[in-house]
Amino acid sequence: MRIICVNTGKKFGPWYTKNLKHMIDTYSGLKYDEFCEITQEKHQGVFNKLQMFDLYRDGENLFFDLDIVIRKSIPNLVRKDLTILHAWWRDEWHTPTNSSIISWTGDYSHIYQKFLEQTKYYEETYHKGIDEFMHKHVDHKLYDKVCNSIQGHEQEPETDDWAIWLFNQRYFMFEQGWSGWWRRYLISNTA
Question: What pTM was estimated for this model as a whole?
């Protein structure tokens, strides 16, 4: 089983990758054989995530965004068929999928190949990133409600139901000067 993250460009420093691995190793309960970080910047922004489908064509694969918090043991998220998050917390106008957690087994390199057919078009057309690209062009399944979004939950959650919290572009909340319940799960030398 392989865990994958993508850290390209200047948005996230090396601390974010170390922090994700820390939370996986400390809280998640996941057993894995390999932790992989994609750092080569080939495309515009989040479209660099699509490289993972070309690079990892075998075995069980589980991808996590860097701006998440793992608080406790997570449910089994490894899937045979390509599975992405259903963005049930989003407004209807936004795309109904979210690429913060993705799993697949085997060869799904056709996703990256499709993107390469019209790279500039997809990068310029899909302003919502690969969430929109995958929703419109890739056969996929959806996870049940396996996580929540920090949006509207900046205070300590009333229940401890969620093992994973997505910060959805609020990665700056990991930096010094921000306080909140999530900080106790981060590796000590914060971003």
Answer: 0.94
Write the pLDDT tens digit of every residue in 112-145.
999 999 999 999 999 888 999 999 999 999 999 9
pLDDT digits (tens, 9 = 90+) for 68-77: 999 999 999 9
CATH of the domain at 24: 3.90.550.10
H-type alpha helices, 86-165: 109-117, 119-125, 130-137
In a domain, residue 190? The reply is no
84 burial class (0-12, 13-18, 19+ CB within 10 angstroms)? Answer: buried
User: Which range of residues forms the domain containing residue 69?
Assistant: 2-185
Query: 172 has which bridge partners?
Result: none
| Angstrom distances, CA of residue 67 to CA of 51, 88, 137, 166 | 19, 18, 25, 7
